[in-house]
Amino acid sequence: MGMSAGGGGGVKADPNVTPMIDVMLVLLIIFMITIPQINAGFTAVPPEGQNLKPHPEEDGDQVLGIDDQGQYYLNKKPVRNEDLETLVREIYGVEGRDDYIMYVKAHKDLQYLKVIDAMDKLSRNGVRVAALITEQAPGTESLVESDRLRPGGN
Length: 154
What we know:
34% of the residues lie in helices and 16% in strands. By secondary structure, the protein is of the alpha/beta class. The longest helix has 23 residues, at 18-40.
């Protein structure tokens, strides 16, 4: 095994990829932290329930979010509390609209009076059904899972 002491070769053009890998790992970590926050739109931890039917949010669903400070978010976009009724009236006042359901996702520590106040504003402006969004309690099973486990269930 000999070592070359120079001479004969040319310029060696091997790129140093270590800094690039470091940058990529940092970007990966940043995106892993920020993407869930971007998707959430606002910070609200919904109350937990048991035996819930799963209902993934669909593109056409209208969602009213209320954070722990009582700030409203309509479809993940912050709105002034004074403008909520006008915006809901614009959505549900359209002729020929066949669904009048608004999903309400409120923070679990929010005073229930504020949730009732928001639902009252919704019902005055065209919303026929306000469905509250909750999370499945840890250690429990959803209604679909319990139906499968029950004798005679699907």
